[in-house]
TrEMBL record:
<feature type="domain" description="BZIP">
    <location>
        <begin position="149"/>
        <end position="213"/>
    </location>
</feature>
<dbReference type="InterPro" id="IPR004827">
    <property type="entry name" value="bZIP"/>
</dbReference>
<keyword id="KW-0175">Coiled coil</keyword>
<protein>
    <recommendedName>
        <fullName>BZIP domain-containing protein</fullName>
    </recommendedName>
</protein>
<feature type="coiled-coil region">
    <location>
        <begin position="169"/>
        <end position="217"/>
    </location>
</feature>
<dbReference type="GO" id="GO:0003700">
    <property type="term" value="F:DNA-binding transcription factor activity"/>
</dbReference>
<dbReference type="Pfam" id="PF07716">
    <property type="entry name" value="bZIP_2"/>
</dbReference>
<dbReference type="InterPro" id="IPR046347">
    <property type="entry name" value="bZIP_sf"/>
</dbReference>
């Protein structure tokens, strides 16, 4: 309780509402009567002219300045800094493109190693890239002749087969055309026969009507003859007609 009594004897903290950076009440003195920490001010906006070179201080580089003793070039238009490239080390092996060093070595190798030019010429003749055919032996020539004979026989056989197939196709076409013609002829014949049958049926109907008419006349004449005989028989003998025999 004594400790709290000691704190109570101090006056309340004071506030300053006129600070525009914070926008709220900021204590100027805390409970222990200590001054507040300094408020960081806003950084000033520096206008940079890109047309003029600019010297950067050492502390603005990301790398320590002691490691790069070479001079730094002026910035480019965009404001970047370009460092000079380091020199290429010459401790490695010599480049193979140097003719002055390679030529004597090659000449020395050619002098020490004996080269058989005739063997190289024969090998180049056998394996020529210009399309030349190497000389073949008798066995190879016989084999090629046999192969050519077999191929000729096969070609002749194929030609004969092709000719036979073409002839058979032509015959089949001719047979088809002949059957088509026969079918057309039979169709026309059936049509004519049908027409003739219809005509004959009509004629038969006409002849039947004529025959029925003649039969009716015959019956009428027979009836008339029977009546005439009866009439003659009923007449007296004097009036009966005399028929010449």
């Amino acid at each position: 309780m004594e400790i709290f009594a000691d704190f109570a004897q101090y006056p309340p903290p004071m506030t300053d509402t006129r600070n525009p950076l914070v926008g709220a009440a900021v204590p100027t003195v805390n409970a222990y009567h200590c001054p507040p920490p300094p408020v960081a001010s806003e950084p000033e906006m520096i206008q940079y002219d890109y047309t003029k070179p600019r010297d950067y201080p050492k502390h603005q580089y990301l790398f320590p300045y002691s490691q790069y003793p070479s001079k730094v070039s002026s910035p480019t238009i965009k404001g970047t800094v370009q460092a000079k490239a380091e020199p290429i080390s010459t401790t490695g092996p010599p480049s193979p493109g140097c003719k002055s060093e390679i030529k004597p070595k090659v000449e020395q190798i050619l002098r020490n190693d004996h080269v058989d030019l005739e063997a190289l010429i024969e090998a180049s003749k056998k394996t020529s890239r210009r399309g030349r055919k190497r000389k073949s032996s008798e066995e190879e020539e016989l084999q090629t002749l046999e192969c050519e004979a077999e191929t000729d026989a096969y070609r002749k056989k194929r030609i004969r087969n092709n000719i036979a197939v073409r002839k058979s196709r032509e015959r089949a076409k001719l047979r088809l055309e002949g059957t088509q013609k026969k079918l057309i002829e039979l169709h026309t014949e059936t049509q004519t026969q049908k027409e003739l049958i219809i005509h004959m049926q009509q004629q038969c109907m006409e002849w039947e009507t004529k025959a029925s008419r003649a039969e009716r006349r015959l019956e009428e004449t027979l009836k008339f003859n029977v009546r005439m005989r009866q009439f003659i028989n009923n007449l007296p003998t004097e009036m009966q007609p005399c028929f010449a025999v």
